[in-house]
Amino acid sequence: MTLTPGMKCYSPNKVCKLTKSIYGLKQASRQWYDRLSTLLLSLGFKQAHADHSLFTKFTSSSYMALLVYVDDIVLVGTHLDEFKKIKGILDQNFDIKDLGILKFFLGLEVTHSSSGISLCQRQYCLNLLTDSGVLGSKPVSTPMDPGSHLHNDDGALFEDVACYRRLIGRLLYLTTTRPDITFPVQQLSQFLSKPTLCHFRAAQRVLHYLKGAPGQGLFFSRKSSLQLHGYSDSDWAGCPDTRRSISGYCFFLGDSLITWCSKKQTTIARSSSEAEYRALASATCELQWLCYLLDDLKINCKELPVLYCDNKSALHIAANPVFHERTNLEIDCHVVREKVSAGLMKLLPLSSVNQIADLFTKALAPQPFSHLIDKLRLINIYQS
Q1: 135, 178, 312, 384: least buried by Cβ within 10 Å?
Q2: 224-228, 289-293, 312-316: which range is least confident on average?
Q3: In what helix (H) or strand (E) does residue 148 lie, and over which residues does it extend?
Q4: How would DSSP label each residue in 26-65?
């Protein structure tokens, strides 16, 4: 360790004796990131504005991106010589372990093929099913009963609260590659403080659904276009306890699903149009962030991003520059209108049947659920 400036004057030949390991202290992650980022910036990398854990380097002959999660690093690029150079410098400074081509990262299984890249959490899912004792159970067609509405009921409490919390935590991480369970997990996450047997049975249903296809995950086609488009939807007053609405959106880059969200709105909407417009504003902010991220990666979309909404009233509010009444929607209206006027995106209508964001706002019956899941283009490479 380097002595502090004040001690150097009086004790130039002294050293510090550690009474506690540095690893695990609050300052450790900050110091590690500071040292790593300083080194990368000195090597010509630029830190992305949209995501500070992403570093990029562009030259006339090569492109390289480096993604950091604590002390795990993913390196992608177009020039093998640059790869070897960067890995050599990192090894000299940090003593790294080179794991070769990306196949496994933080529980995510990555499979490469000539048609594209598959991303799933099959082993993680199987471990979850085994630990929960449902590996040999009969699968179900949907992760949530379309007739159920979870709320803070007065039923019998589930005694093992820690077990319920661990289960929901593991399901939350599984939503990284399983957007089809995002809505039920979002619903179940609201009852961590006081779960009942009803909530636990609903969580068990999600596990039974996962049993049907534990290897299902995302697929990124190599032939996909760079057209960015998304879907925004809302379920008005969907929460029985607070009567707050549920916002949902998802975005695709070409045919590949890249981001999605299911979230309860912060305030109560007095109409379905208000709820839809709040969801539209959230989706617009997400679209803006995606554009910033693509700009950091030097990816230029030739066509204007498109955001689809199935509520005509929300579309009319976005198109009409005149306020007939000052409402709580004013800020959201300004957000959406400003981005449309600035040419960030186009707002287009679509039928409710093809509204993919429905998956993230409500529990659906098997037929519409299967129809929308097909549109997410999830694949199971382990299915025979």
Answers
A1: 384
A2: 312-316
A3: none
A4: HHHHHHHHHHHHHHHHHTT-EE-SS-TTEEEEE-SS-EEE
Burial-class residue 84 by CB neighbours within 10 Å (0-12, 13-18, 19+): exposed
Shortest CA distance to 375 belongs to which of 235, 229, 264?
229
Nearest residue to 184 (alpha-carbon basis) of 115, 126, 248: 248
In one letter, which amino acid is 258?
I
SS3 66: strand
pLDDT tier at 324 (50, 70, 90 boundaries)? very low
Task: Give the whole-angstrom CA distance, residue 27 versus residue 33.
Answer: 10
Sorted by where each starts, the structural domains of the chain and their CATH numbers stand as 18-100 (3.30.310), 119-212 (no CATH), 224-350 (3.30.420.10)
Q: Dmax over Cα atoms in the chain, in whole Å?
A: 78
Cα of first residue to Cα of last residue in the chain, in angstroms, is 56
The label of the residue with tokens 């504005």 reads 49
Backbone angles phi, psi at 104, to 5 degrees: -145, 125
- Token pair 């360790």 is found at 1
**CB-side exposure of 131: number of CA atoms within 13 Å?**
12
133: left (phi over 0), alpha (psi -120 to 50) or beta: left
Residue 178 CA to residue 186 CA, distance in Å, equals 13
Q: Crossing angle of helices 272-296/330-341, nearest 10°?
A: 40
Alpha carbon of 273 to those of 115, 258, 314: distances in Å?
41, 27, 6
**Given CA atoms 148, 153, 158, 162 in this order, what sign does their dihedral have?**
positive
